[in-house]
């Protein structure tokens, strides 16, 4: 179950507002304005960006290039 797996290693102290899967990565937009990239295999954050001052409301990923777009 993906939801259970996500809870096992995602920091739930900062609520996430949107989530996308890309290969073995979980890309999550958070209410803090952060985008965090979690490795499913390593069960840890592998990248973090302060993208906005407030909520990330949507994330999409180009399957061709891996480019992450957000608003």
Give a quick summary of the entry.
By secondary structure, this protein is mostly beta strands.
Task: Note down, in words, how this protein is organized.
- By secondary structure, the chain is mainly beta.
- The protein contains one helix and six strands; from the N terminus they run αββββββ.
- A hairpin with a 4-residue loop joins strand 3 and strand 4.
- The protein is globular, with a radius of gyration of 11 Å.
- The mean pLDDT is 83.
Helix content: 10-25%
Order of helices and strands: HEEEEEE
The 3D shape can be described as globular
Biggest beta sheet attributes: 4 strands, antiparallel
Poorly predicted regions are none
> What is the overall pLDDT average?
83
Distance between the termini: 28 Å
Our estimate of the beta-strand percent is over 45%
Radius of gyration based on Cα positions: 11 Å
Spatial order of the strands in the main sheet?
1-2-3-4
Give the beta-strand count: 6
The chain-level structural class is mainly beta
Count of helix runs: 1
Q: Secondary-structure blueprint of this entry?
A:
Layout: H1 2-9, E1 16-22, E2 25-30, E3 34-39, E4 44-50, E5 59-61, E6 68-70
Antiparallel strand pairs: 1-2, 2-3, 3-4, 5-6
């Amino acid at each position: 179950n993906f939801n259970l797996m996500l809870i096992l290693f995602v920091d739930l102290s900062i609520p996430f507002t949107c989530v996308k899967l890309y290969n073995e990565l979980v890309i999550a937009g958070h209410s803090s304005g952060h985008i965090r990239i979690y490795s499913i295999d390593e069960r840890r954050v592998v990248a973090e960006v302060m993208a906005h001052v407030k909520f990330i409301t949507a994330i999409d990923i180009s399957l061709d290039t891996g480019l992450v777009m957000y608003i």
